Amino acid sequence: MTAYINANETIEIPLSKGKLILMFIGSLLFVAAGFWFIKVPETFTQTIFKPSPTLIIILGYASIIFFGTCGVFILRKLFDKKAGLIIDNDGIHDNSSGVSAGFIPWNDISNISTIEVSRQKLIMIEVNNPDDYINRQTNFIAKKAAAINHKMYGAPISISANSLKYKFDDLYYTIRNRWQQSTGEPGL
Q1: Domain definitions of the chain by residue range
Q2: Fold of the domain spanning 83-183
Q3: CB-based contact 153:187 (threshold 8 Å)
Q4: pLDDT digits (tens, 9 = 90+) for 48-69
Q5: Tens digit of pLDDT for each residue in 84-125?
Q6: Contact 111, 126 (CB under 8 A)
């Protein structure tokens, strides 16, 4: 980790095409499993839990819908030429996922923290005007995700390093230090 981040330096973090390809393959596997659940639900009723074929079919459709949607977002990011994240004097330019927040000025940010949900580390960005960030989302899924993040974690914006060529801890340290430098607060 860098001990001091130059407050005037623009940091461009590219999307990791390798990570995105792996995530896309994973989503395809879950979609295939969903089709398998629908095609032969009886195969899965012989387990300890003894689920009904109807439940297996419902899980199949849910898997196809959820992971199919994820796959579409990931595929779009695979062909995205823009940087995944830009950190500069003005703030953060988030283009890291299918539900990216866009530009977040430093003076809109009230806190930056981390959480872990299902072994997934996220940087949570709390803002002074959360409804503005929720309402700026143009598609239904992104808007719902931002609203749920805000309700559950107090922050409508979450950033993951999963699709970036950057380690999570370094990303958190960099973003938090640049925010603190912009507000004049002491660093970490």
Answers
A1: 17-78, 83-183
A2: PH-domain like (2.30.29)
A3: no
A4: 778 889 999 999 999 999 999 9
A5: 999 999 999 999 988 889 999 999 999 999 999 888 999 999
A6: yes
